[in-house]
Amino acid sequence: MKTRLISVDPLFPQSEIIQTAAVSLLRGELVAFPTETVYGLGANALDAAALRSIFAAKERPTNDPIIAHISKASQLKDLAMQVPPAAKLLCDAFWPGPLTLILKRAPQVPAIIAEGRDTIAVRMPANPIARALLHATGVPIGAPSANTFTRPSATTAEHVYQDLAGRIPLILDGGPSTIGVESTVLDLSGTQKTILRPGGITLETLRAVCPDVVEAPSYLGRADSSDSPGQMLKHYSPKAEILLFRGESIKELRAGMYRVAQGRIARGERVGALVSNEDALGLPSGVEKRLLGAASDLSAAAQTLFAGMRALDSRGVDCIVVRDPGRVGLGAALWDRLLRAAEGSVIDV
Ligand code: TXA
Ligand code: MG
C-alpha cells in the first residue's frame, strides 16, 4: 500500500484535504491525524471492521481498547449509557483538551472498541485538524496513538511515517503535537474517580474541579493490572536501553548520570542523554544529547520526550541516560512514560 503524506495548515485546515480524509475514513480506511497530545491512527468508531484494521496496522494485541474522539458534547450521549454529573463538570472544564473519560458504553457502539468491556473511553481533542476531521465525518473516530505497538508515541507526521508507511493510506501532517504526551485517562465508570493513565491534564488540575479524583496505583509499577488495560510495563520504548535515574538530590542524580555515562563510554558503547539544559552541562564529551528544555519547564520536556527518544534511536545509541523529573504536575505523566520505556527498571542514587 502506498502511504500519502499531506501537509495541512495547523490553524486553518484546508477543507478539500479534510474532505478527502473524511471520505477515506467513511469508506472504512485508516487515517493518521495530529492531535494536541500525540498523533492518532483513526478509524470510524462505529465501523467494527475499520476498528479491527487498526490492530493489524499497529501490530497491537487485540486486548487493548481504543479511545473514541468526538467534536461535540452532544455526541457523548450516543456513546455512553449515562453521563454522570462529574463527567459534565469535567467536560465543561477540560474539553476540548487532553482528558479521556471512561464511561459505561451505549449498546449501539461496537464492543470491539472496548474489547468487550462494558465501558467506552471518550475524548474531545482540541487540535483544529482533528476537530475539522471529526466535524467533516460526522462520526466519532476511534484512534490509538499512531505508533507501532510498544514504540514511543508519534508527535510528528514523520514519526507516523517511520512506523506505519506501507500499512495505511493517508497521514495528515499538521506539524508537531503541542503537548507531546497522551491524554489523562480518568475512569468514571465505577464508584471511585480513578486516573488510569497520567497525561496532559494533571492530577492537581483535575482535583480543582473534582477533589475526589484518585490515582490508580497500577502505573506506578504493577505491570499486569487488568483495570488499566494497555498499560503494560513495556511501552513507549526506544530501541536503546533506557537508564532511568531516581533520587532525592538533583546534584547526586546528575553525578550518577555522568558517572554511568562515562562508564558506558569506557566500555565502548554509544551513549545518549535526554536531559535538561542544566543537566547537559556536565555530561562527558561524546555523549549524544537531546535537550528537554529548562529543568523547571515540564511542558517543554513533555513536548520533546518521545521525539528525543526517536532521535537518539536514529543516531544508533546503545543506551540513553535520563532522570526522574519529579512527580508534580506533568512530571507524573513523564515519569510514567519513562518507567515504561525503561521496562520498569530504575537506578536509585
Ligand atoms: O492522547 C491520547 O489519548 C491519544 C490521542 C491520539 O488521542 N490516544 C492514545 O490512545 O493515547 P492509546 O490507544 O495509545 O491509549 C489509550 C489508553 C490505553 O491505555 C487504553 O487501555 C485506555 O486508554 N482505554 C481505552 N479504552 C478504555 C476502556 N474502555 N477502559 C479502560 N481503559 C481504556
Ligand atoms: Mg499508545
Report on the architecture of this protein.
With 349 residues, the protein is an alpha/beta fold. 32% of the residues lie in helices and 19% in strands. It has helices at 15-26, 48-58, 76-79, 85-94, 128-137, 157-164, 203-209, 250-266, 277-280, 298-314, 331-341; strands at 4-7, 31-33, 40-44, 67-69, 99-104, 119-123, 141-142, 170-173, 184-187, 194-197, 214-215, 241-246, 271-275, 288-291, 319-323, 346-348. The N and C termini lie far apart (49 Å). Bound molecules: threonylcarbamoyladenylate and magnesium ion. Magnesium ion is lined by residues 144-145, 153.
Write a brief caption for the model.
This protein is 32% helix and 19% strand.
Lateral arrangement of strands in the main beta sheet: 1-8-2-3-7-4-6-5-9-10-11
Number of continuous helical runs: 11
**Quick check: average pLDDT?**
94
- Tell the overall outline: globular
Radius of gyration: 20 Å
Main sheet characteristics: 11 strands, mixed
Output the structural class. alpha/beta
* Distinct ligands: threonylcarbamoyladenylate, magnesium ion
**Element string (H = helix, E = strand):** EHEEHEHHEEHEHEEEHEEHEHEHEHE
Helix content: 25-40%
Query: Could you state the oligomeric state of the chains shown?
Result: single chain
Detail the poorly predicted runs.
219-230
Strand content: 15-25%
Number of strands: 16
Distance between the termini: 49 Å
